[in-house]
Amino acid sequence: MESVINTVIRSRKCWIILVFIQIGIFSRTGCDIQNFNSLYFRVPNMRMSSLPVITINNVPVEVCAERCVRETTFECKSFDIDNKDQGCRLYNDSLDDPFIHLIPSTFVDHYRTAYVKLFHRLPNHIVTVSHDRKIPRISVEKCARRCVLEVSFKCQGFDYEVRLQNCWLTSKTPAASGGVVIQYGTDYYQRTFDGPFENFINFGYGTLRPLEGIHIYNKIMLGVNLEHCAQLCLVENGFTCSSFDYLFNDKSCHMSKYIAANVHGLQNEYSEESKSMHFEVKDEYLQKFYPAPYSAIVGHNEKTISRITPSKCARMCLMERDFICRSFDYQIQDVKCLLSSKTGSDVGGLTTHGHAQVHHFEMKPYLDCGGIFTSSTGNIASPNWPRKYPHNMKCTWNITVSKFKVIRLTIIHFNLGKYTDFPCDVVNDRLIITEEYQHQNDTLCVQHDVDTYTSKTNTISLTFQSNSKFDAPGFKLFYQEDWACGAVLTDDNGEFASPRWPYQYPSLSLCEWTIRAPYGCTIYLSFTSIELEEHIKGNCTSAYDRLEVFDGSTKNSSRLASLCGKKGIHAYRSSLNVLSVTFISDDRVQERGFHAVYKFFYPPTTTIESATTEDTTTTSTEKMTTEQTTSAAITTETAAKVFPFNASHLSLIAMFVEPNNNNSPVDKSQQSQMIDQTTESENIAVTQIDKDLTTRNVRLWHTIIIMIIIFIFIVTVVVVTLVIVCRYYRTRVPKRRNTSNLPFTEESETLYRHDNHLNDNLDKGSSESINIPQPSPSGPPPDVTFTNPMYDRKHGTSSSTLASSTYMEYTI
């Protein structure tokens, strides 16, 4: 049977179909060029014993993986990467084939398929007893691969008999089959697609255990399907929906804020009369793990943590420093978390103990080689983490956080293999941190003894480079935006705060901020929140944790304030263009800290230019005339900038400007006469200005009224046009009649009457039979016919029932 299927698959027509199937597969799974590695498992320093079908030179591992997936001229099952010359070798053989094995080889890595990662495993469950195809005696990986590459129907999953190694492909989902069924010795593998179920862990059959005196369900919805229930849980706003139980008999959705760990597990005593399934929400930490319910790694746990949730357990595994945590087991009834450096493949497979309340979670590999991060927090790891990274990699991550903040890196693990005394040497695998500070690029190569790093700006770049020599686990780090412990602030409308605000500031801190404004400006500083350690005795100058504000750039400058304890809003203003703030904390009590904002105040601008040097021979009368002319010009220019008058107004105003000259030999009568003339001229100018403004206002109102009238006219025309068009088309629609409106021809009218007579005869109970075309009995011969004794034995199905539900498989 296997040989027949392989022969059919190798046909040209089937390969053309397979191309479209593969394209559809990876469009549904969200796979791109940097995620084709997720379909393969790396075996370092090993190569295939057979000869490759195709060899491609000078390509990275991502391109080689994509080429193997999209290959259509033959069935690509695995590939090797020569790290020395970046050669890609594609094979149509795998380790499951006879007489095929791996050979140790330096600088070569073998990649075998891992299609089983595209499925969610439920031990001791089956989805249906009506499968579409059976493939006997194959491994789980081959069964998963056959389901992915199936072309005759849409394979949604498969049931796998562990002892007999039988693969049962099906196009049905739990929602289509009415729920899963408990069947010991058989595992159900469900395809994972993008959609609402990507945010949930499927625990199979069961419901939350009831608690006496507590309503474990916060909302119950009736008459909804399974997918709709998942969407309702995700968008629920009245409470935090953490899980839901779906009952297939009455199509009811039971949403709860509790998970199985809160109620001491699930009740999963199977009953044919009541089928149900339990789903739990995956948060940001559980999203990074493959869940395997009712499975565990026995005897390979390095650390045990009690009284925490599965989400907290996943977070502890991600941040574990003592060893590289690759998986964890979670015991629901005992509320225990067991961290491990091993996975199921490391120990020969997972152990399943019926429906014991223990679940296994395995960390997903980090596949991104570079990226752009703009969120406030995140984590970055070398490609293929927590396994060893590939060779010849060059990845760049750019991190940008909010303005006025810095980036704090926390390095959890760092192991790049052998290195020289200088970590930046090109012969080493390197992690380089680069940032632009004061118009220069600061570069740092991370060393093995570095645990934390704090940037000077809000943007940094991480570059990872690996060569073809060494093989090492790599690195894992977290980043978080934080407030800088001291800085020189030169941007207007800025802010700063104590480190980690609004959370507790670190102990033994000494932070200094210098706010520097442009020359001639002053600085306004306001503290929006102050929560420091209380100091009962003495003033704040001797407090344990305190803030000091100085009117200058050093501590020798004038002290504006010393603050401690919990204060309200405090504001200060500098006398010059520099202000400094100092924050001091001891090693005892830590509070939330402080937050402050500042603003620059610029001096008023002036338009008067310095007078030109005068000739020593100029007389006093000429000086007076020159000063009067210059004063009149300045006043006219100033008036033109302040008031939007026309040229005639400005000249009129300039005629009545009185120059300021204390040395002018004008008597009091002339001076009084000049003042009267000036006053009269100013009144005339103001009257003329008022008239112009009134005229402009009248013209503006006329324009507005005309625009309103035009708008009303346009709206009226549009409405009348719509009414006329609607009336026209309404008159063309025929009215309802008791007879058909179709213009029958003679032939169609005869058939119409004949059909009505047939209906009348059928209503009257006539025995006249209608000859309906039947399907041809000579269909394609079945490729194989078989029964399933497993279901006959478990469910007590009679032989006649099995005969009526015989499974048939047709050739492609």
Automatic annotation (TrEMBL):
Q: Which PROSITE patterns match?
A: CUB, PAN
Q: Looking at the Swiss-Prot or TrEMBL record, what is one Pfam family this protein matches?
A: CUB
Gene3D superfamilies named in the record: Hepatocyte Growth Factor, Spermadhesin, CUB domain
Quote the SUPFAM superfamilies the UniProt record gives. Answer: Hairpin loop containing domain-like, Spermadhesin, CUB domain
Q: Which domain of life is it from?
A: Eukaryota
Boundaries of every Apple domain copy: 31-115, 116-193, 281-365
**Could you tell me where the Pro residues compositional bias lies?**
774-783
Which residues are listed as membrane-spanning? 700-729
Disordered: region residues: 756-800
Q: Which InterPro entries match?
A: CUB_dom (IPR000859), Pan_app (IPR003609), Sperma_CUB_dom_sf (IPR035914), Spermadhesin-Link_domain (IPR052129)
- Per UniProt, residues of the CUB domain are 369-482, 485-601
Alphabetized UniProt keyword annotations: Disulfide bond, Membrane, Transmembrane, Transmembrane helix
Q: Where is the composition biased (Basic and acidic residues)?
A: 756-766
State the signal peptide span: none
Protein name, UniProt field: CUBN
